[in-house]
C-alpha cells in the first residue's frame, strides 16, 4: 500500500502559486493594481481596432492587444499598461502603440498638475507590427519620448514575464524604464533569436537551441548582468509585490539609459569572433553596475 | 530431388560463416573500425536479405546512415524490417534502390513521404503492423539475415550495455542470434567494464563505435504549460466516471495532453476525492515526467516501461521501488514485455485519436499519409486470451450467461473538434479511402469500435460496453459528439433515456463541476514545477526548457 508522503516545502508552495505567465494581459493589468481599483480605458467595447489588419485578412481585436487601466498602487494613482502576447505576438501597431503613448502622456500631465501617477508596463512583444510598420515605428518613438518625460516625475516599472518575451521597440522601452522586473522564463533582447537566425544564419545563432537562447537573453542572465533589477518566480502575488517595492524605493540612483558609455565600453571589450559563454559574460560584467 | 544425405541442413550457418570470413581481417575481437563500416555492410549483406534496422525511440542511426552509403550495384533490393520509419536516411535506402520492400509499424514523422514513395513504386509495403506484432513475425516468417541495432556501450569481450533505452534490442537480437543471422551493433563507447550486462557477448557478431551517440526521442514527455482547461475537465470526468467507478488499479496512458492532465490531477483532485491507493497503482508506461507528482505523493507502486524519457535517469535511479532498474540503478526498459503487459495485465488503456466514426471505430490516419499503428492497437484492444480477473475487468460484465467474461477497459478521450475547427467525429473515416488508395487489403483502423468501452469528450462519457445494440451504441456516441455532424443527430429524448440507463453521463451526472476545471488544479503547471517536484533530479531535455 502507498503511504502518505511528506512533501517538501518547495512542492507545497507550488499549489499556493498563481502563475502570472498564464494570465492574459487584462488580468495582468488588474494584478499589478490594488485590488478593486482596475478601471480600463478604451476597453474592447469602445471598439477601437486596427484599421490595417482587416485589409491584410487578419482578424483585428477590439483592444488591439493593449490593455490600459487606471487604478492605484499602494493607494497612489497609477496606470497599468499590459501587452497581450497572444494577439499578433504583442506587436505594436497604430492603435495599441497610441493607447500606450497616450496613457503615458496622461500620466505625465497628471504629474505636472501635481498628481504623481505611477506607471507600470507589462511587456510581451515581438516589437513593431509589420502589417503597419511605419506608423508603428513612429508611435514607438512617441512611447520612448513619453517614457523619458514621465520618469522625470515618477519611477516607471517594466515587467517582462514571458512567454512571448520583450523584443524590438519594446526592448527599447524596457531599456528606458527606471526598473525592470523579470522571471526566469522571460527574455529581453533588441533582436529576437528568430530574427538573428533569419538574418545571420543558423551558424550564427540556432534559435531552437533553447538553453543557448535563455543563457543569452533569459531573465536569470539579464538579472545577473544588471540589465534587470529584480528576478522573480512566476507568481502573480510575488510580481505585484516586487512592483510595489520598487515604487516604494523611489527614483533609481542611476538610469541604465544614462550609462551608455559603460555599455559601449562593454561591447568594445568583446571580440565578436570569439564565442562567449553566459558564465564568461556574467564574470566580466558582475562588478560594473551602471 | 535432394535426399537428406546430400542436402545441407546448415545453409544459414554456412552462409553466415562465409560472410563473416570476409570481414574477419578487419576485426579486432568483435570490433570493426568505424571507417570500414560501409565496406563491411557490402560484404556481410546480400541483395534480397531481410535486414532489421532498430528504430523507435532510439535509432541505430550510424548504421542506417552507413547502409544508405553502400553501392546499390553491389547491394540492392533489401527487405527492411523496421519498427518506425523515422529518419531521412531510412527513406534514402529506398530512393537509391538499396532496399525495395519494407515491413514496418509506424511512420509518423515520415508518413507523407512514405505514402508518396509507395505511390511512385519506390517502396513496396509488405504489411503495416503493431510493434509487438512486428517483433513476433521476426520469429516466424520475417526472420532476419542481419540486424542493425544500437547500445550504449560494449566491453572488450563484446557484452552490451543498453542502458535506460533497452527497448527492442533484446528481442531483435534474439531473432537473429539464434537462427544464424548476423548481429551488428553500434555503440556510443567501448569501455573496460559495463555497469550491467544487457546482452551477452555470445549473441553479438560485430561491434562498431559510432561517430556520435545514437539518436533518441523523448516521445512521451509533455509540457504541463500546454494543458488546456478543456483537457482538465475531461481528465476530471475520467477520474470520477471511469477510474473511480471501475476501480482501475493498473493502466496505460497514451501520449496526449488529456492523459497528462489526469496524471497531474491525481495529487490534487484525486486526493480530494479520497482515491489514493484505490486507483492507479500499477502502470505500464514510459517514465514520463508528468507522473512525478503522483509518484512523489505516494500514488504509484510500480512502473514498467517500453523505453526511456530523456532527463529522467537520475530521478529513476533514486526511485528503485517504483521503476525497473538494474543493479547499477539505471532504468531497464523492454518494449516487447511492456506491450505484453499492456495487452494482458492491465485494467485500462486510455488514449486519444484523430477521427471516430458513428460506431466508435477510430483512426489516426489523415489523407495522403501512411502513419502506421505503433503500439496502440495492442494496448487498446481486449485480450481474448486473458483468464485472470480484477475488479475493473469484472465490472464490464453486463450479461448473466454462465460463460460470461470480463473485458479490458479501452477508453478513447478526444475533444469534439480539433484545432482549426476540424471535427473529430466523422461519418466515414479517412482511413477507409486511404486503404483503397494505397491498395491495402483492409482499412487501417487503429482501434475497432467493438473494442472501445468508453469514449470521453468535453461533453461527457459514453459507456459503450453497456450498449445492447448497435443502435444504442450509435446513439450514445452521438450524445457526446457535440455539434459535429455525428453529434447533431442526437435526439434529446433518447439522450435523456440513455443518461437514465447509465449509457451516457454528463459532468453534472458525475458530480463534476465544469467551473472547477482550472489550471490551478494541476499539481504542476510547467516543466520547472516538475523539476521542483523531483527535488531537482529530473533534467528536462533542452527543447523543453524555458529558463
Provide the fold topology.
The complex is a heterodimer of chains A (290) and B (547).
Chain A (H helix, E strand, L loop, with lengths): L8 H7 L9 H8 L6 E3 L24 E8 L2 E8 L10 H19 L5 E5 L10 H18 L5 E5 L5 E2 L1 H8 L2 E5 L4 E2 L3 H8 L9 H8 L1 H6 L5 E3 L3 H14 L10 H10 L8 H8 L5
Parallel strand pairs in A: 3-4, 4-5, 5-7, 6-8, 7-9
Antiparallel strand pairs in A: 1-2, 2-3
Chain B lengths: L10 H13 L7 E2 L4 H8 L5 E4 L4 E2 L1 H7 L10 E7 L3 H8 L3 E8 L4 H9 L4 E5 L2 H7 L8 E9 L5 E2 L7 H9 L4 E9 L15 E4 L5 E2 L12 H18 L3 E4 L3 H16 L9 E3 L7 H5 L5 E3 L8 H5 L17 H10 L3 E4 L3 E2 L5 E2 L12 H4 L11 H4 L14 E5 L3 E2 L3 E2 L6 H8 L16 E3 L4 E3 L6 H10 L12 H10 L2 E2 L1 H4 L16 H7 L14
Parallel strand pairs in B: 1-10, 2-4, 2-7, 4-5, 5-6, 7-9, 9-10, 12-13, 12-15, 13-14, 15-18, 18-21
Antiparallel strand pairs in B: 3-11, 7-8, 16-17, 19-20, 21-22, 22-23
Helix pairs in contact in B: 8-9, 16-17
Helix count of chain B? Answer: 19
Going by CATH, the homologous superfamily of the largest domain in chain B would be Glutaconate Coenzyme A-transferase
CATH topology call of the largest domain in chain B: Glutaconate Coenzyme A-transferase
DSSP, total strands of chain A: 9
For the biggest sheet of chain B, the summary is: 9 strands, mixed
Strand content of chain B is 15-25%
Gyration radius of chain A, rounded: 20 Å
Whole-number total of structural domains of chain B: 2
How many beta-strand segments of chain B? 23
Strand order of the largest sheet of chain A: 1-2-3-4-5-7-9
CATH topology of chain A: 2-enoyl-CoA Hydratase, Chain A, domain 1
* CATH hierarchy: architecture of the largest domain in chain B: 3-Layer(aba) Sandwich
* Portion in helices of chain B: 25-40%
Amino acid at each position: 500500500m502507498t503511504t502518505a508522503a511528506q512533501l517538501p516545502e518547495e512542492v507545497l508552495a507550488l499549489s499556493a502559486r498563481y502563475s502570472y505567465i498564464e494570465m492574459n494581459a487584462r488580468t495582468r493589468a488588474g494584478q499589478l493594481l490594488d485590488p478593486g481599483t482596475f478601471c480600463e480605458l478604451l476597453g474592447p467595447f469602445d471598439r477601437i481596432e486596427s484599421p490595417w489588419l482587416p485589409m491584410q485578412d487578419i482578424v483585428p481585436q477590439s483592444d488591439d492587444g493593449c490593455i490600459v487601466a487606471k487604478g492605484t498602487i499602494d493607494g497612489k494613482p497609477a496606470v497599468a499598461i499590459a501587452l497581450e502576447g497572444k494577439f499578433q505576438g504583442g506587436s505594436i501597431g497604430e492603435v495599441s502603440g497610441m493607447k500606450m503613448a497616450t496613457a503615458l502622456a496622461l500620466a505625465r500631465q497628471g504629474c505636472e498638475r501635481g498628481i504623481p501617477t505611477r506607471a507600470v508596463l507589462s511587456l510581451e512583444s515581438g516589437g513593431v507590427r509589420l502589417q503597419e510598420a511605419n506608423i508603428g515605428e513612429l508611435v514607438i518613438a512617441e512611447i520612448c519620448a513619453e517614457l523619458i518625460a514621465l520618469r522625470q516625475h515618477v519611477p516607471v516599472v517594466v515587467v517582462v514575464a514571458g512567454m512571448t518575451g520583450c523584443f524590438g521597440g519594446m526592448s527599447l522601452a524596457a531599456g528606458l524604464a527606471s526598473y525592470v522586473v523579470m522571471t526566469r522564463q522571460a527574455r529581453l533582447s533588441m533582436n529576437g533569436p528568430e530574427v538573428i537566425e533569419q538574418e545571420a544564419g543558423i551558424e550564427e545563432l540556432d534559435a531552437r537551441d533553447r538553453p543557448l537562447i535563455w543563457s543569452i537573453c533569459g531573465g536569470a542572465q539579464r538579472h545577473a548582468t544588471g540589465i534587470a533589477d529584480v528576478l522573480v518566480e512566476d507568481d502573480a502575488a510575488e510580481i505585484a509585490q516586487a512592483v510595489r517595492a520598487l515604487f516604494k524605493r523611489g527614483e533609481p540612483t542611476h538610469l541604465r539609459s544614462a550609462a551608455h558609455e559603460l555599455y559601449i565600453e562593454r561591447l568594445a571589450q568583446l571580440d565578436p569572433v570569439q564565442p562567449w559563454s553566459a558564465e564568461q559574460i556574467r564574470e566580466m560584467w558582475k562588478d560594473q553596475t551602471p | 530431388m535432394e535426399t537428406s544425405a546430400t542436402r545441407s541442413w546448415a545453409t544459414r550457418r554456412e552462409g553466415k560463416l562465409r560472410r563473416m570470413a570476409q570481414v574477419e581481417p578487419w576485426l579486432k575481437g568483435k570490433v570493426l573500425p568505424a571507417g570500414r563500416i560501409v565496406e563491411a555492410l557490402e560484404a556481410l549483406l546480400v541483395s534480397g536479405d531481410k535486414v532489421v534496422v532498430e528504430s523507435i525511440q532510439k535509432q541505430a542511426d550510424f548504421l542506417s546512415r552507413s547502409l544508405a552509403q553502400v553501392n546499390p550495384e553491389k547491394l540492392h533490393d533489401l527487405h527492411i524490417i523496421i519498427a518506425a520509419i523515422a529518419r531521412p536516411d531510412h527513406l534514402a535506402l529506398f530512393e537509391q534502390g538499396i532496399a525495395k520492400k519494407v515491413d514496418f509499424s509506424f511512420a509518423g514523422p515520415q508518413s507523407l513521404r512514405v505514402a508518396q514513395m509507395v505511390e511512385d513504386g519506390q517502396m513496396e509495403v509488405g504489411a503495416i503492423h503493431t510493434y509487438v506484432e512486428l517483433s513476433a513475425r521476426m520469429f516466424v516468417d520475417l526472420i532476419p539475415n542481419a540486424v542493425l541495432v544500437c547500445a550504449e556501450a560494449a566491453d572488450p569481450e563484446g557484452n552490451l550495455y543498453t542502458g535506460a533505452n533497452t527497448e527492442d534490442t533484446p528481442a531483435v537480437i534474439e531473432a537473429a542470434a539464434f537462427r544464424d543471422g548476423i548481429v551488428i551493433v553500434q555503440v556510443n563507447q567501448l569501455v573496460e567494464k559495463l555497469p550491467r550486462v544487457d546482452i551477452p557477448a555470445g549473441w553479438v557478431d560485430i561491434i562498431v563505435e559510432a561517430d556520435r551517440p545514437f539518436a533518441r526521442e523523448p516521445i512521451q514527455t509533455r509540457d504541463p504549460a500546454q494543458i488546456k482547461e478543456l483537457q482538465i475537465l475531461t481528465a476530471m470526468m475520467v477520474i470520477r466516471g471511469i477510474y473511480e467507478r471501475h476501480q482501475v488499479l493498473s493502466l496505460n496512458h497514451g501520449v496526449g495532453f488529456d492523459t497528462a492532465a489526469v496524471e497531474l490531477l491525481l495529487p490534487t483532485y484525486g486526493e480530494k476525492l479520497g482515491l489514493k491507493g484505490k486507483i492507479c497503482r500499477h502502470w505500464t508506461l514510459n517514465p514520463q515526467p508528468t507522473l512525478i507528482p503522483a509518484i512523489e505523493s505516494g500514488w504509484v507502486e510500480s512502473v514498467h516501461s517500453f523505453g526511456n524519457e530523456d532527463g529522467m535517469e537520475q530521478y529513476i535511479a533514486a526511485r528503485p521501488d517504483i521503476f525497473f532498474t538494474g543493479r547499477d540503478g539505471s532504468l531497464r526498459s523492454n518494449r516487447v514485455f511492456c506491450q505484453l503487459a499492456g495487452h494482458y495485465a492491465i485494467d485500462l488503456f486510455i488514449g486519444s485519436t484523430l477521427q471516430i466514426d458513428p460506431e466508435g471505430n477510430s483512426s489516426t490516419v489523415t489523407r495522403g499519409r501512411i502513419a502506421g499503428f505503433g503500439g496502440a492497437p495492442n494496448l487498446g484492444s481486449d485480450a481474448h486470451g486473458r483468464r485472470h480477473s480484477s475488479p475493473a475487468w469484472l465490472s464490464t460484465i453486463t450479461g448473466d450467461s454462465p460463460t460470461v467474461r470480463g473485458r479490458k477497459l479501452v477508453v478513447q478521450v478526444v475533444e469534439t473538434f480539433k484545432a482549426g475547427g476540424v471535427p473529430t467525429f466523422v461519418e466515414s473515416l479517412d482511413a477507409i479511402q486511404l486503404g483503397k488508395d494505397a491498395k491495402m487489403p483492409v482499412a487501417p483502423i487503429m482501434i475497432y469500435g467493438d473494442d472501445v468501452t468508453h469514449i470521453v469528450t468535453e461533453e461527457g462519457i459514453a459507456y459503450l460496453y453497456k450498449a445492447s445494440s448497435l443502435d444504442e451504441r450509435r446513439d450514445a456516441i452521438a450524445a457526446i459528439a457535440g455539434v459535429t455532424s455525428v453529434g447533431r443527430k442526437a435526439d434529446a429524448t433518447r439522450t435523456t433515456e440513455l443518461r437514465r440507463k447509465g449509457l451516457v453521463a454528463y459532468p453534472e451526472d458525475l458530480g463534476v463541476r465544469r467551473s472547477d476545471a482550472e489550471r490551478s488544479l494541476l499539481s504542476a503547471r510547467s516543466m520547472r514545477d516538475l523539476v521542483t517536484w523531483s527535488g531537482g533530479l529530473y533534467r528536462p531535455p533542452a527543447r523543453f526548457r524555458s529558463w
